[in-house]
Amino acid sequence: xxxxxxxxxxxxxxxxxxxxxxxxxxxxxxxxxxxxxxxxxxxxxxxxxxxxxxxxxxxxxxxxxxxxxxxxxxxxxxxxxxxxxxxxxxxxxxxxxxxxxxxxxxxxxxxxxxxxxxxxxxxxxxxxxxxxxxxxxxxxxxxxxxxxxxxxxxxxxxxxxxxxxxxxxxxxxxxxxxxxxxx
Length: 183
Prior knowledge:
By secondary structure, this protein is α/β, with parallel strands linked by helices. It has a single domain, classed as Alpha-Beta Complex (Nucleoside Triphosphate Pyrophosphohydrolase), CATH 3.90.79.10. The chain contains four helices and seven strands. The strands form two sheets. The protein has a five-stranded mixed beta sheet with strand order 1-5-6-2-4, sandwiched between helices. Strands 3-7 form a two-stranded antiparallel sheet. A hairpin with a 5-residue loop joins β5 and β6 (111-123). The N and C termini lie far apart (37 Å).
């Protein structure tokens, strides 16, 4: 009998909150490129701030949590550790499995899942090990600033509005977690 990977990770890192977000459409990258879902990394730096980034293709002023796709046949935890290395080069410990955010498309009933983890940085020099990531800037946000970044994403213009709502959900969920957790 195969075990549910979410339940297994929940036993190790705490049962994640399960959230369903309905979006007008989820027909945009990275959703249509990541059929197996994604991992999302909330990395708490030693200074007590959380790492955010932007990429060259994003509109100005957009900062979000790092994330990455789960490859076919790859387990969630392996994808998480691989993506941490690819995007940040940091060594981190998994502190908590915060949430599974299920996005549903109102029109087609398509679905996509983000697995949000809270991590603590142990060591490393911040840099991207994967040049195809096209990360152009990093910033650090206090837990109290997360909703400000989420609001910027949620209010993006028409061409980016669904993507912005999608990316805002993880920041909103993380802000709620941080407000109730001892960091």
